[in-house]
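User: Some background: our group keeps a shared notebook of sequences we're curious about, and every so often someone picks one and asks for a predicted structure to add to the entry. Today it's my turn. The entry only has the sequence so far, pasted here. Could you supply the structure so I can complete it?
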Amino acid sequence: MADERTKKTLAQIPLLKTKASPRDGDLWRQRLKEEYQALIEYVNKNKQEDNHWFMLESNEIGTRWFGKCWYIHEMLRYEFDVEFDIPVTYPSTAPEIAIPELDGKTAKMYRGGKICLTDHFKPLWARNVPKFGIAHAMALGLGPWLAVEIPDLIEKKIIEHKEKN
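Assistant: Of course. Here's the predicted structure to add to the notebook entry:
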């Protein structure tokens, strides 16, 4: 069962209803509308709690997403480009979130900078199809990954704050 912090995070993100992929025409447009509504609500709640940590946008048809994510460590902001494509089997398959500039810098990453979410997030996603969406992937996938990996990469001096360079 999920811990209290995970439950609190989940309570902030509306669940989605439409099970549709980019190949489903009007149904995909409905799903995309739900995705945007959930993202907007999650980002707004994060801003209210002074916990804003990512910005995303998509291409016109909602199949390619890109933006920035950041992690604050010892009062320094570490910012990274983030990107992912919506799989053709979405929402049955979660998106593979990538931080290309960290490619090869941690064992918890696949080729191309795709973060490893197999052990913890993907089973949770599978149990919640089609209710989970992009906001859930950010909150329950990328967020915890950043919280574990970024401090470790900083401690090992694999990444440095940009102002130090």
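Suggested note for the entry: The mean pLDDT is 93. The domain at 8-153 is CATH 3.10.110.10 (Ubiquitin Conjugating Enzyme).
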